[in-house]
Amino acid sequence: MNKKRRSVPGVRHYDGPAGGWGALKATAIAVRTQMDALEAPVTLLRTNQPDGFDCPGCAWPDKEHKSTFQFCENGAKAVTWEATSKRVTPAFLAKNTVSALLKKTDFELEGYGRLTHPLAYHKESDTFRPVEWEQAFARIGEVLRGLSPEQVEFYTSGRASNEAAYLFQLFAREYGSNNFPDCSNMCHEATSVGLPRSIGIGKGTVSLDDFEKTELVIAIGHNPGTNHPRMMGTLHELARRDVPIIVFNPLRERALERFADPQSIIEMATYSSTDIASTYFQVRAGGDAAALKGIAKHVLQLEAERGDVLDREFIAAHTLGFDDFAADIAATSWESIERESGLNREQLEKVAEAYARSNATIITYGMGITQHNKGTANVRLIADLLLMRGNIGKPGAGICPLRGHSNVQGNRTVGITEKPAPEFLERLSDVFGFVPPSKHGHDAVQATQAMIDGRARALICLGGNFAVAMPDHEQGSRQCTGWT
């Protein structure tokens, strides 16, 4: 029985695959709208190339052997927004008061283009006015000297390079602060907390090479077509090799169903596409943990029946607490699993059986897993499921958290954290000859609360847009209005 389509004003129904000619058309429109016709090809061809720059669109890694075109539709849009030829000049700012600009949407403000000068707010005219860099540096120094280190927040985003982020944390710690609200606090904080507890490190354990060797991919809580589209090339290759891709997602995302690779001459010429998901389960929103427990429960049942499903040697040598984990899974009823996951027992048992057959499994996940009040538990359940069959630390297997920006992980690695390790601080002291602060600082949530409470009096941002990225940003931003 066909369901009646609901019409949405201004939105046309689309029956085609993700990618394909539609992606090329959207890319062309973005380029034409934002960039100079001569500069655009040169800029895009440098994207994700050894002598170029990392795309700010997502964090999917680069292939060792690159092709000429190493960008996707969303990446091209992100690059064109950054490299736009539009400019916000002093003349524009003189005609538009801050009060008027505050009424604009974020989309409208970004559409005006890039700033051309350092700016300072002029209260009498309610406008931003250009200043020389020396004046800007002097004013920043004056403000910082008038505050204690606890009153200043140092925000970073994954758009910063390793070198810039390292110098930023060094600057803040020489000033005396560990207040490092970061974009990762609001996306993969559950990964940063959960994975070290489970496997000893807050990073994924796979490389692109592992996807060439894997026998099964379980994708849960993410939509690569929108959030990390270059991953679609990898999933496309897996699907063409008949590697099973099992998807858990509350919504049926078109890219996870069908994808036409813009770099495939055959698919572009024939208007054909490739089915991506071999099996697609629409898990209930928030029901991921229950689904994962259901898979683990049947894996334990298969072990009891056959005795060859768990990697007992790996578990004994490399894990702790398996008996407690198994007892918790055994105590979880199928009734509660089905109710909370929105899936039936038979569906989850089929996933468990596919997992038991695979000798090398990768589980990929995104913010559909982490953006919950039980996000850390979700992450740990994924790790536990992989550990049951020794799918950590071997070719073609592992855990793959999908980061949102191209250098979120790099920022963390070079010291952007409100809870620095003592060893890291000791090395800073040895190399640079100062005593870094050891007291833990603010993460993104704590920084926002400090602004609301009036405890924070200055915010310095390295990339990103803290006000827009944070929840309750309007209240926090209003508190900042009186800063000078």
Automatic annotation (TrEMBL):
Gene3D superfamilies: 3.40.50.740, Dimethylsulfoxide Reductase, domain 2 (3.40.228.10). Its EC number is 1.2.1.2. Keywords: Lyase, Oxidoreductase. Residues 114-465 form the Molybdopterin oxidoreductase domain. The keyword Oxidoreductase applies. The keyword Nuclease does not apply. One of its GO terms (cellular component) is membrane. One of its GO terms (molecular function) is lyase activity. This is Formate dehydrogenase H alph subunit (Formate-hydrogen-lyase-linked selenocysteine-containing polypeptide).
